[in-house]
Design goal:
Layout: H1 3-15, H2 21-33, E1 51-52, E2 58-62, H3 70-73, H4 81-92, E3 113-117, H5 130-146, E4 152-156, H6 158-170, E5 186-189, E6 192-197, H7 202-205, H8 212-226
Parallel strand pairs: 2-3, 2-4, 4-6
Antiparallel strand pairs: 1-3, 5-6
Helix pairs in contact: 1-5, 4-8, 5-6
């Protein structure tokens, strides 16, 4: 089985997942009730697989789908404010072919980059439980096994930072003491270089805690390390 075929098989498994009853109930309720602005749209309402270049050297790890973003559109970071910031940054540094992603068929392509999430279903209040985090962990472990070219992992937020270390530990790669998360934090773990980045959530971008130059700096550094 080729690498792309293996990723496709994992994608199908992720989409069918129902391991976490609370998340299943929440994602499906959100898809039924909908937000008024999207009342005429059909929501995805299922778990989200990762997507991008199977030959990626850079992996971007987020927290979880947004209830009315990825849970609506069917692709992580697509159709929400966090994604607006993320894809604009990826476009500015030459990773994405366009500066926005609004739906599955909008033509977005990534070069040398794969995007995924620590938790694959939209969680209430964006707060997955420890058991929900652990139920999703094997999916990330398997993505890392299949994405053999990945050398750099950009962790968007402290939750993703923690999950990246957990996934690499499962694969037999550990570092002690574990570096604390922070914007611009870095750690070498086995063959991987981890970079910390504030999550491009509205809480961070509206307040100026994360700016466009800060986001660009992280991805420019990631590209240098991945070269």
């Amino acid at each position: 089985m080729s690498r792309s075929d293996s990723l496709a098989a994992l994608e199908r498994e992720v989409i069918e997942c129902r391991r976490c009853p609370r998340l299943v109930a929440w994602r499906e309720q959100t898809a039924r009730v909908k937000r008024a602005a999207f009342a005429d749209e059909d929501y995805w309402g299922r778990p989200l697989p990762g997507f991008g270049d199977p030959r990626a050297r850079l992996l971007v790890l987020g927290l979880a789908p947004a209830a009315h973003g990825g849970n609506r559109t069917g692709r992580i970071f697509t159709g929400d404010r966090s994604g607006d910031w993320l894809f604009a940054a990826l476009w500015r540094v030459g990773i994405a072919n366009q500066p926005e992603s609004i739906r599955l068929d909008d033509g977005l392509k990534l070069a040398g980059c794969y995007i995924t999430a620590a938790v694959r279903c939209a969680p209430p209040q964006n707060k997955p439980s420890p058991s929900e985090r652990d139920n999703c962990l094997p999916y990330l472990v398997r993505e890392l096994e299949l994405l053999r070219g990945v050398r750099v992992i950009v962790c968007l937020g402290s939750f993703a930072w923690e999950v990246a270390f957990r996934a690499l530990s499962v694969r037999g790669m550990t570092v002690k003491p574990r570096p604390r998360f922070g914007h611009g934090a870095s750690a070498s773990v086995g063959r991987y270089q981890l970079l910390g980045c504030y999550h491009p959530s509205q809480q961070n971008t509206f307040t100026g805690r994360l700016t466009e130059p800060m986001l660009d700096d992280v991805f420019n550094r990631a590209l240098e390390l991945a070269a």
